[in-house]
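BUG: 3D viewer hangs when loading the predicted structure for this chain

Environment: internal workstation, default settings.
Expected: structure renders.
Actual: progress bar stalls at 90%.

Input used:
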Amino acid sequence: MKKVLFILIATAAFASQAWPDEKTWSVGYAEADITPEPRQVQMSGFGRQRYAEGALAPLLTQVVVFRDGEDNTGVLITADILDFDRVMVEAIRRAIKFKHGIPPENIMLAASHTHWGPAVRFRMGYSLGAPNVWYMDFLENEILTCVGTALKNLSPAKIKYGWFDYRGIGCNRRLPVDGKITWGPYREGSFDEHTPILRIGRGAGPEQLLIVGHACHPTSSGTIQKWSPDYPGAMRDCLAAKLPDTKAVFVQGCGGDAKVVHEDPDSGKLVFSASPERAKAAGEKLAGAVLKHLETGKMSPLGARLACSLKTGQISYGKRWSREEIERLAYPEPKRNGQRHSWQTWTARQSLALPDNSKSFRYDVQVWKLGEQLTVFGMEGEICSPWGPILREMAPTKQAMIIGYANGTGSYIPDKRIVYEGGYEGLTSQHAYFLPAPFTENIETEIKQIVKRALKAVK
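Structure tokens produced before the viewer hung:
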């Protein structure tokens, strides 16, 4: 009780402090419920037919607008979806620039990557969730409305940044067995435990915003046929319930190769979590760790200066899959009556119907610099855990925050070790995204070059 009281008092003091005469941040916030109607659109994230019959909890889009002391404006857009389509990202950026004059590099979109959200991507195997363009239109309009609302309620603000290492809810899922990478909890595997927090105190309600990042797949709700934000939603709800006039925002980190786990009470073994109760427990556990850091951890103020950049580059493909290889998946031996084809079969057929003739893979890197203390990387794709320390080492500032699943998501983004080892993230997932070939071990060098250009472009 004493700890909760201390947090409440500290939060009130943080939010109500007087604004000095020098230049300060202005921050705006808005949110909207983006939960589809039952069976309106397929759920996205697993290779099986899935339609939601209702909602376990609402799906949200949240918008945080940052404006510095010289009127430079950044827009962070989050949504409880698996990932954003590049075409939707482009449409949203163009609309915001047209209406509000904010350039593309200052607009970052980030998906929570919940596997109980609606399909909204064109370039994804439809066996993993086919989109409904009318729902996509609704989502886009809700996002744009929130951006306008957040810009209207800009309020003087102070921003602090802190982070802590946390391994309390997840671990690596690339389990090596007999020299091959299989699917299972792997304690000794790579896991990016770096958990960042942006704490924003505003002069208007909500008086406090908490932007929390964590690097772990939201795949812990089991086989339910209901919309759900999974553990990120439970984390947001817990923080809002514990702290006065607070809204929490979740951003995904380098969690492409991590899943939520718990110890089985009967066997004592580590297993993947797969029920709504486990998802809720994981979110609340993460929220508890955030509250503890807010109470005892270091939070550094960020000066009111924002600089942004966005650079595009290419990632090389290795040897392309031959038509014969794709056809072997697309046209397997006839199945017995009642047996369904696998998601791989339907993805292979989609590849034949909509072939990808690209010579390389487009990859964008977005960089924001807040004050002189913090670099924020917006990294596309299902970026895997080794990239966390790689990017933090490249940052020119003392602190660095990585937002994965940012903007377009067209593939897993492994490092060179994962490419060499293969497995789902390094090889077979490329079929789900129906790319024409896997990446090469040059992927680290190629992405680092794009990152360097993005860092150099930040003014």
